[in-house]
């Protein structure tokens, strides 16, 4: 473990994390592969044959293959060198899902072939990058826990052209993805907290789903389903339809409503409820110790709630 | 290399192609069923690929193994030795196809291919084969490339091209290694390929043997001289001497061969020459009379010939020095030697024996008797022919007195017989006479049709003296060669239509033939025969030393320089990718990574700028200076295509100013300002 930590520290110094990394000699490692060692063994046998049979042409072949080995070393290195990799973000997922991580590979001048991208325990992905072009890839990384996910260092390796050498680099591309708790299906809580009811009574009509009330200018976070596409097509700009919401339908979700002693499970139940209510179009508020989010509806509200659940009890800036 | 995964179709095509081209040079040496077997294995493997057939089971595989062992045994008559081993390896190479499931197996096939490629050189080292072998080499390397290519690609031309480029790049280092790698003595003795019938002298001589050999246009050896080439008529290349006669054929005397070599007077004039002999499978080598050599692989024999310790199974070059005027064993023959070189069978050839007695009575002096004998050949109607009349039981009698038509071995054999019958020690010498001068390389080519037999007679005080009865009958044979001697007969190379030597009269053809021969000779001399002696000669000429330590320093310097140049060329800095703005962005991002202020995924220039302004309030003007220029240029580039050089310089200057203004460490208070940014809703960096 200690060696591993040391290795990680050394890597961190040598190849600092960055969103965009261009591979150069400081960042590329290269060693003969097992196939390369086999090749050297073959050369040793050929050399013995050349010596024993005093055969100049076998000597020549041996030396040609040895020189080829030396040449391939550089070609393997050059297949990686100069590539620049850029993380193009990922989107939040629920724990247990695979998080898609975008990656853009750019290759100046040369074509790059057979680049293998992998994490330990993740099926590697192999791709080519055309000369002076770029290749976009989406890598998938498994998630287990909620919170901020920082994937391990990505291994990019190549054995091209002959498989005699393996050149690789270990990169931290600063991917930082939020992982929501794993949603758990559970029946919605029947009674609402009194406090929530008071607030609901005092509040004017909240935005709901039932009675159409009018239009207002689009605000980021408004549900796409409620956009007034007809007005948009007439060129009148983007507007959201406002519906009046019967008050009694808004629902407070509180951590205290959940049963059980396992925090993760309780957060999962809350997550499940939020998804259910969002799908049903019923406004919901979220109450966590030290945090109250007033009932509302819409994707941005949902994201704020889920984010709060994802980071509950964890350090914000993981 | 992943052991899992199947072999893609294009890789299989590569491997099959590679097998064909690797096997091709071996096929002429092997029985016909080997080619059939390859076709069978390849078909089976293709059917496996098409999911029609299955991989063979263990039982089938072990049966196949037994079958190929039997096949090798019946084809070669043995299971050991080089020929059998190579054949066995070839068959395994084919069978491996049926066992090739994943890329690792494919790799084994390719590596075996390299090995089999090398074994072809043990059997043939000619220029045509060497040139041909470039094809399998290229295909094998391309097959390796094909195995590494992403499976979706099917790009054989690209694979071939990169294989070719890499091989060409390997050549400089190859040359250094070839010249400077020390040539070691064999680590253990190995048996050379053999068994194939070769034309050339044999270790016995019956009437018509050499006449048959003289129909062959094949090359026997080449010789180059230090200084001018001596006249061709003086070039009597001695290979061996025949001292035993059984009534029909002459052969070597084993007992005499085992005697120690007599002293040789090395005070007179000498000729230095180099001979490169083809593989004959025999021990004898060719030298002029009175030869000595420093070649460790050769020894000097009792009859003043040179002989190789191991049979000549590959091209062999050696240097020798001859003292043509030195007397050979002038003082005294031992009783054993005398008896052995006078011995005749008890019966046979009564007329010749009787005639010998008559000559003995007429000439008391040995030298006079020899002259009389030569005169007989000169004056009687003897006829020099490649198509002599077949001889019966008393071959010497019939030849001397009845048919009088014969080739050199008839004259030499009959003369030696008569000399011995007259009580003068004599022996037949077999070898070659004359040759053809190639003026391009100034060397002498000696063909099989230059094979010759003549007589050595021992005279008291003068030792062994060469006499050539053929010269009395057909002096043009010695002066100008066989072609002139048998011109009237039209029998010169009459069966060898395609031989270049047959068409010496056609000037351009002859030129081309000699030019090609010169290339071959230089190839043998400089490449095939590049052994430690040649290497040392080269070092002495180039470096003035043969001390390995000093050579090592030079070699390391040269190899190091080549490697360094190559490496520098390959590792030269890359032209940066993308536009000037992208490069500036990347550079700033890398610099700010130290302050943990790099751009966030998906963050646009304005957002980043704001964040930086908050985190680095003191550098605000530099930040704004850079980002304003950046944004302006980015949009200008969108509108007009690309930015001007002036723009680039300005951006560079702003970037420099910003980077210079950046603090070494991140201001402590700013840590909380690294707020999480929503991952969506922001511009992509340009």
From TrEMBL, chain A:
Q: Taxonomically, which superkingdom?
A: Bacteria
Q: Which UniProt keywords apply?
A: Membrane, Transmembrane, Transmembrane helix
Question: TM segments?
Answer: 28-51, 57-77
Could you identify this protein by its name?
DUF58 domain-containing protein
Organism, as annotated: Pseudomonas neustonica
TrEMBL record, chain B:
UniProt cross-references to Gene3D superfamilies, sorted A to Z: 3.10.620.30
Q: Read off the InterPro entries from this record.
A: Bact_TGase-like, Papain-like_cys_pep_sf, TgpA_N, Transglutaminase-like
> TM segments?
30-46, 58-74, 80-98, 105-123, 129-147, 159-181, 551-571
Q: What keywords tag this UniProt record? A: Membrane, Transmembrane, Transmembrane helix
Residue spans making up a coiled coil are: none
Which top-rank group of organisms is this from? Bacteria
One Pfam family for this entry, by name? TgpA_N
Residue ranges occupied by any Transglutaminase-like domain in the UniProt entry: 400-471
According to UniProt, the name of this protein is: DUF3488 domain-containing protein
Q: Which species is listed as the source?
A: Pseudomonas neustonica
């Amino acid at each position: 473990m200690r060696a591993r930590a040391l290795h990680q520290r050394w890597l961190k110094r040598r190849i600092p994390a960055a969103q965009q990394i261009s591979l150069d000699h400081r960042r590329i490692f290269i060693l003969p592969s097992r196939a390369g060692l086999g090749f050297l063994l073959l050369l040793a046998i050929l050399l013995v044959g050349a010596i024993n049979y005093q055969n100049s042409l076998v000597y020549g072949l041996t030396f040609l293959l040895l020189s080829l080995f030396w040449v391939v070393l550089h070609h393997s290195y050059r297949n990686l060198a100069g590539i620049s990799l850029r993380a193009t973000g990922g989107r939040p997922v629920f724990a247990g899902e695979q998080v898609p991580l975008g990656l853009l590979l750019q290759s100046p001048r040369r074509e790059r072939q057979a680049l293998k991208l992998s994490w330990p325990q993740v099926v590697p992905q192999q791709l080519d990058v055309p000369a002076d072009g770029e290749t976009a890839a989406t890598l998938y990384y498994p998630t287990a826990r909620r919170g901020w996910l920082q994937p391990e260092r990505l291994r990019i390796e190549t054995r091209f052209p002959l498989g005699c050498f393996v050149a690789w680099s270990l990169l931290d591309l600063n991917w930082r993805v939020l992982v929501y708790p794993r949603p758990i299906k559970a029946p919605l809580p029947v009674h609402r907290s009194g406090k929530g009811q008071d607030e609901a009574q005092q509040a004017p009509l909240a935005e709901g789903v039932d009675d159409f009330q009018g239009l207002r200018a689009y605000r980021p976070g408004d549900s796409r389903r409620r956009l007034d596409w007809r007005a948009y097509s007439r060129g009148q700009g983007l507007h959201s339809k406002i519906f009046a919401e019967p008050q009694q339908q808004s629902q407070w979700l509180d951590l205290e409503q959940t049963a059980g002693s396992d925090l993760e499970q309780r957060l999962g139940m809350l997550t499940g409820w939020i998804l259910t209510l969002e799908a049903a179009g019923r406004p919901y508020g979220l109450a966590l110790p030290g945090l109250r989010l007033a009932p509302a509806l819409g994707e941005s509200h949902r994201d704020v709630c889920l984010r709060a659940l994802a980071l509950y009890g964890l350090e914000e800036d993981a | 290399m992943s052991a899992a995964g199947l072999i893609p179709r294009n890789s299989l095509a590569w491997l099959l192609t590679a097998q064909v081209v690797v096997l091709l040079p071996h096929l002429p040496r092997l029985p016909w069923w080997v080619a059939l077997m390859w076709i069978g294995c390849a078909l089976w493997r293709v059917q496996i690929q098409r999911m029609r057939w299955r991989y063979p089971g263990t039982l089938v595989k072990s049966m196949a193994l037994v079958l190929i062992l039997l096949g090798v045994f019946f084809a070669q008559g043995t299971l050991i030795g080089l020929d059998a081993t190579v054949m066995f390896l070839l068959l395994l190479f084919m069978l491996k196809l049926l066992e090739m499931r994943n890329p690792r197996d494919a790799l084994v096939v390719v590596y075996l291919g390299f090995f089999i490629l090398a074994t072809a050189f043990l059997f043939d080292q000619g220029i045509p084969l060497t040139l041909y072998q470039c094809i399998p080499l290229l295909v094998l390397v391309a097959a390796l490339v094909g195995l590494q290519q992403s499976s979706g690609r099917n790009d054989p031309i690209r694979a071939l091209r990169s294989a070719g480029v890499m091989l060409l790049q390997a050549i400089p280092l190859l040359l250094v290694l070839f010249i400077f790698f020390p040539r070691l003595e064999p680590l253990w003795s190995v048996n050379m390929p053999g068994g194939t019938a070769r034309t050339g002298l044999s270790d016995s001589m019956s009437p018509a043997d050499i006449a048959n050999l003289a129909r062959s246009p094949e090359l026997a050896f080449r010789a180059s001289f230090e200084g001018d080439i001596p006249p061709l008529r003086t070039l009597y290349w001695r290979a061996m001497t025949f001292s035993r006669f059984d009534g029909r054929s002459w052969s070597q005397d084993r007992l005499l061969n085992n005697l120690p070599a007599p002293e040789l007077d090395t005070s007179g004039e000498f000729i230095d020459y180099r001979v490169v002999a083809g593989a004959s499978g025999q021990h004898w080598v060719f030298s002029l009379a009175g030869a000595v050599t420093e070649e460790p692989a050769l020894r000097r024999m009792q009859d003043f010939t040179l002989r190789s310790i191991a049979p000549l199974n590959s091209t062999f070059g050696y240097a020798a020095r001859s003292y043509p005027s030195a007397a050979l064993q002038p003082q005294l023959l031992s009783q054993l030697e005398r008896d052995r070189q006078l011995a005749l069978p008890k019966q046979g050839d009564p007329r010749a024996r009787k005639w010998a007695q008559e000559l003995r009575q007429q000439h008391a002096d040995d030298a006079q008797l020899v002259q009389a004998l030569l005169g007989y050949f000169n004056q009687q109607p003897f006829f020099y022919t490649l198509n002599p009349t077949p001889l019966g039981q008393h071959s010497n009698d019939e030849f001397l007195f009845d048919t009088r038509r014969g080739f050199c071995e008839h004259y030499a054999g009959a003369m030696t017989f008569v000399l011995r019958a007259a009580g003068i020690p004599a022996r037949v010498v077999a070898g070659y006479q004359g040759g053809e001068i190639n003026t391009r390389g100034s060397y002498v080519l000696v063909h099989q049709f230059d094979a010759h037999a003549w007589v050595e007679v021992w005279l008291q005080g003068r030792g062994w003296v060469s006499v050539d009865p053929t010269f009395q009958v057909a002096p043009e044979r010695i002066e100008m060669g066989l072609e002139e001697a048998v011109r009237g007969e039209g029998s010169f190379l009459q069966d060898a239509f395609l031989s270049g030597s047959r068409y010496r009269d056609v000037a351009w053809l002859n030129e081309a033939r000699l030019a090609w021969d010169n290339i071959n000779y230089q190839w043998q001399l400089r490449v095939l025969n590049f052994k430690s002696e040649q290497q040392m000669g080269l070092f002495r000429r180039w470096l003035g030393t043969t001390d390995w330590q000093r050579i090592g320093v030079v070699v390391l310097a040269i190899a190091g320089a080549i490697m360094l140049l190559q490496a520098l060329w390959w590792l030269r800095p890359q032209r940066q990718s993308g536009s000037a703005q992208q490069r500036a962005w990347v550079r700033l991002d890398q610099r700010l990574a130290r302050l943990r202020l790099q751009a966030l995924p998906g963050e646009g220039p304005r957002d980043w700028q704001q964040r930086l302004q908050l985190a680095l309030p003191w550098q605000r003007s530099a930040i704004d200076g850079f980002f304003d220029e950046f944004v302006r240029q980015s949009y200008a580039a969108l509108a007009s295509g690309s930015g001007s050089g002036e723009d680039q310089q300005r951006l560079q200057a702003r970037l420099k100013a910003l980077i210079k203004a950046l603090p070494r460490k991140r201001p402590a208070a700013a840590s909380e300002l690294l707020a999480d940014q929503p991952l969506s809703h922001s511009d992509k960096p340009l």
